[in-house]
Specification:
7 helices; 5-stranded antiparallel beta sheet; alpha+beta
Length: about 190
């Protein structure tokens, strides 16, 4: 992957150069695992004040899991949401949910009265999550891209738009089965199909 993208220099989220680098990086990825890991790195680099990120995936059984993350603490916060049945990644990954959830003040977030204060006790003040959607008529959520920040009110419209763009990249090539492929599955290239 490009050194500038990896290092995080020039964290301007509207940098056309970063988007070109991300696109090239995604095209170079050969597996789903590789693509989702690159999406996480891009979230940390491109979203201002993103301290950590994770990807939630919904199993066929409805069970949620966090197979991809930038920091072990993200897994802790995701699992806390799964256990409580509330929080931004639970909301965004719910097929009947809003597909996007955010808060700039987790300590006082009325939408998640148990998760919000618990996340704040970890030192995180802001969060956003956006659904990974199937490119079908139903637009069923299969997971979520989650971004956490220690800075209050920091995940603004630029952060939202960047996260939505990254989630679109992560969602676009799901196979026709309608479920995310396994992590080691070969990623389709412009010349291949599922």
């Amino acid at each position: 992957m490009n050194e500038r993208l990896v290092s995080g220099s020039d964290r301007s989220p509207d940098s056309a150069g970063h988007m070109v680098e991300l696109t090239r990086s995604l095209l170079d990825a050969e597996t789903v695992d590789g693509v989702l890991r690159r999406i996480l790195l891009a979230a940390r680099v491109l979203i201002p004040d993103a301290d950590m990120a994770s990807i939630t995936l919904r199993e066929r059984t409805g069970e949620l899991g966090t197979p991809f993350y930038s920091d072990p603490e993200a897994v802790d916060l995701d699992r806390l949401q799964y256990r409580l049945g509330e929080g931004p990644c639970v909301t965004a990954a719910d097929p009947a949910g809003a597909a996007f959830a955010c808060s700039g003040d987790l300590s006082a977030e009325p939408a998640w009265p148990r998760f919000g204060p618990a996340a704040a006790s970890y030192g995180y003040a802001s969060v956003l999550a956006t659904a990974l959607l199937l490119p079908t008529e139903s637009d069923e959520a299969v997971g979520a891209l989650n971004v956490y920040s220690r800075a209050p009110g920091s995940l603004d419209d630029v952060a939202r738009d960047t996260a939505l763009l990254l989630a679109t990249h992560a969602s676009s090539p799901w196979p026709p089965s309608g479920r995310p492929p396994t992590a080691r599955a070969r990623w389709p290239t412009p010349r291949t199909r599922w």
